[in-house]
Specification:
Elements lengths: L23 H7 L4 H22 L7 E5 L12 H6 L6 E5 L23 H8 L28 E5 L4 E5 L11
Antiparallel strand pairs: 1-2, 3-4
């Protein structure tokens, strides 16, 4: 009955994309030169298996599930140097909210395309739970209002890469042209 937090980490989405070939879709995609595709399909199937089982067992009642990668793709994807580096920072966040918590003024199914970064995660989770401090030690912002409407404008995403020795900020209107090596 008490609130709890559970974190699970996986390395299946990392190179060399070694995933079990137990599903025909994964077997077929493994033949593609881009190993990421088979790994992505395997992840999708495993998320379906885990979440379906949790729902069947009543473990998702009053639950919010967040799925976040630690970065985008390692592989260089794109034509220009900037496009190749930017792919590393394109990390989606998937948020699933149980029906018991969904209310039109709190959560509604939608795709959010606002600029955000991982530093926004802590204040957003605290905001979702109604425990955001008045004065936050976090660099990020509470973006929980995005679950209802397009409420965020001019948010900046913090970018850093140990692989390319880069650091910078990006927004919807300005590309991270200030990345410094």
């Amino acid at each position: 009955g008490d609130p709890y937090f559970l974190a699970a980490m996986t390395i299946g989405m990392h190179h060399p994309f070694a995933v079990p070939l137990t599903h025909p879709d994964v077997q077929s995609l493994k033949a593609e030169p881009d190993g990421y595709l088979a790994a992505l399909r395997y992840l999708d199937l495993e998320l379906e298996r885990v979440l379906t089982g949790m729902k069947r067992d009543g473990l998702l009642k009053d639950t919010v599930v967040l799925i976040l990668g630690d970065h985008g793709r390692h592989e260089k994807v794109g034509q220009t140097d900037f496009e190749k580096q930017a792919g590393h920072f394109m990390t989606p966040l998937f948020l699933w909210v149980d029906d018991t918590l969904r209310e039109p003024g709190t959560y509604r199914p939608r795709t959010v395309t606002a600029v955000a970064s991982q530093v926004d995660l802590l204040p957003t989770i605290l905001g979702l739970n109604g425990v955001a401090p008045r004065l936050s030690p976090s660099v990020g912002h509470d973006l929980s209002c995005l679950l209802v409407s397009d409420c965020v404008q001019d948010n900046m995403a913090f970018l850093s890469s140990v692989y390319d020795d880069l650091i910078g900020l990006a927004s919807e209107t300005e590309a991270p042209n200030d990345l410094r090596r």
